[in-house]
Amino acid sequence: MSMKKIILIAVALMLGVSAAQAQKFIVIDSEYILNKMPKYKNAQEQVEKAATAYQKEVDDLYKKVDEMFRTFQAEKMLLTEEMKRKREEEIITKEKEAKELQRTHFGPEGTLFKKREELLKPIQDQLYNAIKDVATEGTYAVIFDAANNPSLIYINPRYDRSDDVLKKLGF
Fold first, then answer.
1. By C-alpha distance, which of 140, 170, 125 is closest to 27?
2. Scanning 96, 102, 115, 169, which has the fewest C-beta atoms within 10 Å of its C-beta?
3. What is the mean pLDDT of each run of 10 residues along the chain (171 residues)?
4. Domain region containing 31
């Protein structure tokens, strides 16, 4: 058999297998699904409120550092060397406190991360379980998420099963 025939047969087989398994691949849009869930929107709002409150707390502390520094600059000429050193140390300590507070709230394991995980993880787990159920019931091998997959350029709507997942979630 010539190389050309082997390549043609291989391509034909691949196309045949792809066509036979086309129904095994579907797409969902997790962002679309989550935005249809009131519980998710509520949790998002709570996370945003917490983030705003934490940011205000950090900003207020940095404002205090700034005020201390401006006051120090204005009074610097009137202070003894010992008083200058003491004030500089106070400013540095307050700035470290602000940085630590910022890390505590916004760091990788900070309070905002924990709040987000506490509020959103159960909803995400619920979504995952519904997707898994749809996949199992429909015997789908692969489910792509259009919301988180920038390489999906076009999706034929007939393969979108987001509404099936919403039904599974009770919406």
1. 140
2. 96
3. 48 52 75 92 96 97 97 94 96 97 95 95 92 85 79 68 85 84
4. 20-169
